[in-house]
Amino acid sequence: MGQNSKEVWTLAEFRGGMINPVSYELLAWGRTLADDLEAELASVILGDEITSVETLFHEGADIVYIVDHKGLANFLPDVHSNVLTSLAKEHKPEIILASATTYGRTVMPMLSTKLETGLTADCTKLEIDPESKLLLQTRPAVGGNVMATIKTQTKPQMATVRPRSKKPLKPDQTRSGRILYKEFSPQFFESKYTWIGFEKDESSDSPIQEADIVIAGGRGMKDENNFDLLYKIAKKLNGVVGASRTAVDMGWIPYSHQVGLSGKTVSPHLYMAFGISGAVQHIAGMSSSDIVVAVNTDPDAAIFDVADFGIVGDALEILPIFLKKLGEKDG
Amino acid sequence: MKIAVLIKQVPATDKVKMDEKTGTMVRSEMEAELNPLDMYAVEEAVRIKERMEDTTLTAITMGPPGASDAIKDALSIGCDDGYLLTDRKFAGADTWATAYVLSQSIKKLGGFDLIFCGERATDGETGQVGSSVATQLGIPPLTYVSEIVDLTQNHIRVKRAIEGGHEIIEVKLPALVSVVKEINEPRIPNLAGKMKAKSAKVVIMDADTIDADPSKLGLKGSPTRVVKVFYPKLTRGGKIIKAKDPENAVNELLTFLRSKEII
Fold first, then answer.
1. Distance (Å, whole) CA B211 – CA B126
2. What pLDDT is recorded for position A2?
3. How many angstroms separate the Cα of B37 from the Cα of each of B16, B26, B84, B171, B261?
4. What's the alpha-carbon Rg for chain B, to the nearest Å?
5. How far apart are CA A12 and CA B23, in angstroms?
6. Closest CB to B253 among A150, A160, A311
């Protein structure tokens, strides 16, 4: 295809020597949009010593733009946004999507400001308006109580997309595409930032926003030690541990695990709430989960309203039995 | 050191009315409060003022006239002065147009060494105004900051709470810092603070005061448009059982999880 063909862009996140799986979710969104626009789907990847980009083709990309430079090893926001701005000005994509991760939520406002175009945050649905051929961006606001569909009147149309709002496509090993290496002059890599280091959070292997299963505890867990039960169950189910604001405020678990309006918004396949009453602020952070299970002593607890399955009972009584029976199942 | 804190007034309750026609929030006749996540930004700035000599602290907000209450809240816990950006022309602004007004006001006030804001507001929940303001001002944003490791007159080193851990990064000032809740425990205003805030004057700025380009303001100046608003049904009407016999209850739970192919 020639220079005149339209392009839909997704930003791939390359960190720790690998492509973040959320980047494949973006390609799944991008594939549908590109097909509806009769456009090509590109994945843009910035990093140092980038490898295994062919998976981006397997997951739906037609084009991969690569900027590989040691100055991109860490996320220096000015360098990343300047490089992306230059690429976008050269290739004029119709749409640019990034995941609503801390990376996407930092670099996309910078990029949209530089490109003088609109940006919609944390979308959960994207589609092409059949008439105007513009991108319809749907997102929750006010704790999920309101959904708004937004159109951008400028180009490119930019949006960040909530992790886990779509499953990646089934990888097709036979798919391939064009790899385009882009070179930049040294001044692009001059930064106002000095990167010092990274301290890994030992309590969670995978970020709570990207987890498939979240096992969460609240006030009903009674104390810090009881969270061990949640960690054990999370381990058995390949999930991570979440918490209500109360549990975090009590110091039972670090803030990075907090689900809710003043914590993280999660959309896992399964959300299990143990001893969580379901304050509006908590429900705001988990109501887009596929399946919700709740265990609480109060039959009137609001968490039961949003549950697919609930047990009115003491979480501390249910959890050891649940753990034991999960163990039996494996044995 | 000159410090500014960007704050927002948000609806106090979960019940928010939307204008179905324009798709923007109806802010009148609603109880409002200072965005809870902005409290952490104000607190962090006040702590710096307390430990660094010759520091002035300015609170800035954009909103309807009633948003001066949010400024008063910030003044009550230690901000020195407050500015309210209010003008009918600002109404309906998206994040781009909001960031434009805020950055124009910052330029008009002569710039700051350090600008604080909260991670996001609990109503719009975009979290993108901070980075956009910084970019319009040409200064580096530091987002998701959970700790200020070091601050001098010339530079700042912070910890950023990102997926899977904390990143440590440093920039020369001026810079914009958006903080997460983890950073501190905001204080409750004392009586003296409340009295001071009550009598303090909130300075009003409009489009003319900040030399704004009218084409970049409000709904008209916003590159994005809300085309539809709807209210999702959150209740699921799931099966709720009583755990008279916990063993049985767990068996039912396992059956449920099996039916969903989770185990």
1. 26
2. 47
3. 18, 21, 19, 24, 38
4. 22
5. 32
6. A311
Contact B125 A293 (CB under 8 A): no
Query: Is the CB of residue A118 less than 8 Å from the CB of residue A128?
Result: no
Instruction: Indicate the pTM of the whole model.
Output: 0.90
Cis status, amide bond into B174, omega within 30 of 0:
yes
SS3 content of chain A, % helix, strand, coil (to 5): 35, 30, 35
Domains A7-189 and A208-325 share a fold: yes
Domains in chain B and their CATH numbers?
2-216 (3.40.50.620)
Compute chain A's Rg from CA coordinates.
Answer: 22
Specify which residues A193 forms β-bridges with: B171
Question: Mean of the pLDDT values across residues A4-28?
Answer: 93
* Cβ of residue B168 closer than 8 Å to a chain A Cβ: yes
Predicted confidence at residue A330, as pLDDT, reads 57
* Domain A208-325 classification at class level: alpha beta
Q: Tell me: the pLDDT tens digits for A36-90?
A: 999 999 999 999 999 989 999 999 999 999 999 999 999 999 999 999 999 999 9
Q: Looking at this predicted complex, what is its ipTM?
A: 0.91
Q: Which amino acid is at B108?
A: K
Q: Reply yes or no on whether the pLDDT at B173 is more than 50.
A: yes
Which chain A residue shows the shortest CA-CA distance from B123?
A: A142
Q: How far is B178 from chain A (nearest CA, A)?
A: 10
Instruction: Please state which CATH class domain A7-189 belongs to.
Output: alpha beta
Question: Do A50 and A181 meet the contact criterion of CB atoms below 8 Å apart?
Answer: no
Please give the single-letter amino acid code of residue A239: G
Asked if B101 is an interface residue toward chain A (Cβ–Cβ < 8 A), one would say: no
Q: For position B235, what pLDDT does the model report?
A: 85
Cis peptide preceding B64, ω within 30 of 0: no
Torsion angle of the four alpha carbons A257, A259, A264, A268, in this order, in degrees rounded to the nearest 10: 90
Phi, psi (deg, nearest 5) at residue B74 = -70, -40
Where do the domains of chain A lie?
Answer: 7-189, 208-325
Chain B residues touching A146 at Cβ < 8 A: 16, 18, 229-231
- Report the residue of A19, A111, A256, A323 to disrupt the B interface, i.e. the one with the largest count of B CBs within 10 Å: A256
The two most distant CA atoms of chain A are separated, in Å, by 65
Beta-carbon contacts of residue B216 (< 8 Å; ≥ 6 apart): B97, B100
CA distance A61 to A27: 7
User: CA distances (Å), A141 to each of A28, A62, A148, A280, B86, in order?
Assistant: 24, 33, 7, 13, 23
Q: Does the pLDDT value for residue B24 go beyond 60?
A: no
Task: Please report the residues numbered 264 through 323 in chain A whose beta carbons come closer than 8 angstroms to any beta carbon of chain B.
Answer: 269-270, 280-281, 283-284, 287, 291-293, 295, 299, 304-314, 317-318, 321-322
Nearest-CB residue to A118 (from B157, B223, B263): B223
Reduce the DSSP state of residue A32 to 3 states and report it.
helix
